[in-house]
Amino acid sequence: MKHLLQCIGCSKEFKPTQIYTCPECGDLLQIVYDYASLNRKLRESLSTPGPLSVWRYHRILPVSIKNAVSIGEGGTGLSKSSRLTQRLGMTKVYFKNDGQNPTGSFKDRGMTVAITRAVEIGAKRVLCASTGNTSASMAAYAAKAGLRAVVLIPKGKIAMGKLLQAVVHGAKIVQVDGNFDKALELARRMASRRRGLYLVNSLNPYRIEGQKTLAFEVWEQLGRRVPDAVFVPVGNAGNISAIWKGFQELRRLRLARAAPRMIGVQASGAAPLADAYAKGLEKVVQWPNPETVASAIRIGAPASWKKALRAVKQSKGAIIKASDEEITTAQRLLADHEGIFAEPASVASIAGLLKANRLHLIRTYETIVCVITGHGLKDQKAAANFMSP
């Protein structure tokens, strides 16, 4: 699909090239299309019945479906809550379970597009910094495409289940002294200096395009309607930004009349975005030493902070915090009441829902979607706390 890269800061547009930030002002980039010409073809493709998947929406993706590097991503379940809604006094709560993706997390949605783009531009190696899920996903898709994968991880701060996935798929693992933010900084420097090395973290706008397809799937699964609010765990802040972009495009293409409130949820021990939102700040202040049981969102300097704050403000949503205790409680409730086993970071959305309900930030009759980002087997050490002595 023909597209341009557009700076989210100065709005300058660039032809598609291997850049991740604006050469003029340094802000992140987003992908834009000629939506007027796209409308008819997309409507026609969506009128054809078929299984949900990331590639069902190929007409609004910036890569060719002919080159697709796919292992069956997308098409994840949207299950309606029964027992948990009774507990909350609500009626229409749904769980979008992206832990059902091939490598067990939402990262596969973006990775299929990012790795396809890497193949299209002739990259030989792909690179990421990771708290776990990104490395597992990148390694799997790189293996499918025949590319070499290099993973930078914060030493001693990654769940073994996720690291094992990256190792099994043949990635080269490099441990970095420090946290995820330091690993990402190093990854960005490496990508800028070495030809043929393609960075696939969420600051890559092509990966965001894959992740936005969750919005399109939810729209179809709800009978071509959008929910009133969507709760999303927030770490590096790419996913909430991507999902909001998807809902914006549905409205821009006149496939939906409204868009949901986006409610981001951070762990209290890693909540720079939530703090900035609460204080009304225009810029996020980095947390040097984030700590939380939710390792996948243990990030103190979210790369997509500006996109995320805009998503929340434009949608009239919010960013809230949940303590480790609230997250652990939500993990147990989701498993006990709904039969869904999710890793701690993934249930931040449920913890946020519980808190928002107590604070009356949502109405009992509203249609609510909680995004579950990763399977519980990703972090078995955290789940072991549930076992009786």
Which helices and strands, and how do they pair?
Blueprint: E1 4-7, E2 13-14, E3 29-32, H1 35-46, E4 78-80, H2 83-88, E5 92-97, H3 107-120, E6 125-129, H4 133-145, E7 148-154, H5 160-168, E8 172-176, H6 180-193, E9 197-199, H7 205-211, H8 213-221, E10 229-233, H9 238-252, E11 261-267, H10 272-279, H11 305-314, E12 318-322, H12 324-338, H13 348-358, E13 367-372, H14 380-383
Parallel strand pairs: 5-13, 6-7, 6-9, 7-8, 10-11, 10-13, 11-12
Antiparallel strand pairs: 1-2, 1-3, 4-5
Explained architecture:
Helix content is 38%, strand content 16%. The strands form three sheets. A six-stranded mixed sheet has the order 4-5-13-10-11-12, sandwiched between helices. A four-stranded parallel sheet has the order 8-7-6-9, with helices on both faces. It contains 14 helices and 13 strands. The mean pLDDT is 93. With 389 residues, the chain is α/β, with parallel strands linked by helices. It has two domains: 78-105 and 207-386, Rossmann fold, CATH 3.40.50.1100; 107-205, Rossmann fold (3-Layer(aba) Sandwich).
